[in-house]
From TrEMBL:
Pfam families xrefs: Glyco_hydro_88 (PF07470)
GO MF, any single term: hydrolase activity
Protein's UniProt keywords contain Metal-binding: no
Any one biological process term the GO annotation gives: carbohydrate metabolic process
Keywords: Hydrolase
Keyword Hydrolase: yes
Species: Edaphobacter aggregans
Protein name as it appears in the record: Rhamnogalacturonyl hydrolase YesR
Gene3D superfamilies xrefs: 1.50.10.10
Length: 416
């Protein structure tokens, strides 16, 4: 579909950008630690250390929605300052690790949480979140689920494995950390297209697999991983991206469905997955990769549309174009929107004056759904379309999105 001539030197260039991004986060944290000292009121009860091999599939472990979750937190500040942002991140991350670490598994649901926990350690300077992911990886023998290849959900954990591999200096990198992920990606990139079914036929897949392929590219310098990702991304986009609304349908079943108000049906979390995937691809993709401008343009279009339909409380509803049909905001979609838009401001892709008020409002809105013990509520359970849920509803993928958002908001705080 695309004629691409890419030098393998892009691998070194992308790695430099990757490490500069991590250094920037460290500098913000260092400046903060050098000027302020604070004690978070977050829950800090240590999690029980799981033993033995991890259970590979356990979707029911991802979250719950109790009738009585207790009171909401009163000790958090929405200020866009590192101290306040780190306090909110630690409160949520501490609760989530203590509550969920014994249930950690290799499902896509937890993969999104691991992305957030790795970002939380880089932002807060606390290694325990990274350590929790590392322990899961070691118990899993650094392997992915591989019983329904080439399903993207089963490849999502590869992002965390690759991050843990890439974060070590080159001379200290441990091949086992990427071996199984690379082996599966190697099978994927030689797989012929199925004319009857897209590989990534649902929009969530754009968060699950493309960031893995881009990181295997970064680790190897081999352009075949980017080129394959690029082809598959635009096949999916051609089917599911609405060029008028600048939003993604979840899958082809929704191309003609309408909300109760007659508007097209666009799912909040599904579009959050796509924007999150765009960020994770743009973090790695070389500046002069031939089709990079298309990714940037789609990202800008989606960010502008999402900003235009932001709710008065700073958040987005499960059905994006019929917000009045949903009583509660939906935090997982809102978190990934915040993450993506804050990233765009930080990278000078989005206009700061236009978009900073958007993420200031959304960050404040998300904090209002954190409970006193650190539970992050108003997260839609596992689904593939808009739905309703209790205020207490908390699921690990939404927490992962919140922690990713916090990491980019903390970068913003360093630029205030």
């Amino acid at each position: 579909m695309f004629a691409v001539d890419v030098s393998t030197t892009f691998g070194a260039e992308a790695e430099c950008r990757y490490r500069r991004s991590n250094l920037a986060s460290a500098l913000v944290l260092g400046a903060f630690l050098g000027t302020a000292c604070f004690s978070s009121m977050a829950q800090t009860a240590p999690a029980a250390q799981p033993t033995g091999k991890v259970v590979p599939v356990d979707g029911y472990a991802a979250g719950d929605q109790p009738d009585n979750p207790g009171p909401l937190a009163t000790d958090l500040s929405p200020e866009i300052k590192s101290k306040a942002i780190v306090a909110a991140m630690k409160k949520v991350a501490d609760w989530q690790v203590a509550y969920a670490e014994p249930k950690f598994n290799k499902q896509w649901t937890f993969a999104a949480l691991y992305d957030g926990l790795l970002a939380a350690s880089k932002t807060t300077g606390d290694p325990k979140y990274r350590d929790a992911v590392l322990h899961l990886a070691e118990r899993s023998d650094w392997t992915l689920i591989d019983n329904r290849f080439p399903h993207a959900d089963d490849q999502a954990l590869g992002k965390a494995y690759m991050e843990l591999y890439l974060d070590d200096p080159k001379s200290d990198r441990k091949p086992i950390r990427m071996a199984n992920t690379k082996e599966i990606m190697d099978r994927l990139v030689v797989r012929p297209d199925d004319p009857n079914k897209l590989l990534w036929w649902w929009c969530d897949a754009l968060y699950m697999a493309p960031p893995v392929l881009s990181r295997v590219y970064l680790a190897t310098g081999d352009k075949k991983y980017l080129d394959y990702m690029d082809r598959q991304w635009w096949l999916t986009s051609d089917l599911l991206f609405d060029k008028e609304e600048h939003l993604y349908f979840r899958d082809s079943r929704y191309l003609t469905q309408k909300q109760a108000n007659g508007q097209k049906l666009f799912w909040s979390r599904g579009n959050g997955w796509v924007l999150g995937g765009l960020v994770k691809v743009l973090q790695i993709m070389p500046k002069d990769y031939p089709s990079r401008p298309k990714y940037v343009e789609q990202y800008k279009q989606m960010a502008a549309r999402v900003a235009a339909i932001q709710g008065k409380d700073g958040l987005w509803r499960s059905g994006l174009l019929d917000p009045d049909a949903y009583e509660l905001p939906e935090i997982s979609g809102s978190a990934f929107f915040t993450y993506a838009i804050a990233y765009g401001i930080n990278e000078n892709i989005l206009d700061r004056k236009t978009y900073l008020p958007v993420v200031e409002k959304s960050w404040k809105g998300m904090l209002s759904h954190i409970y006193a013990d650190g539970r992050l509520g108003s997260i839609q359970p596992i689904d593939g379309q808009p739905g309703k849920f209790k205020p207490s509803s908390s699921y690990v993928f939404g927490v992962g999105g919140f922690l990713l958002a916090g990491s980019e908001m903390n970068r913003l705080a360093g630029k205030h």
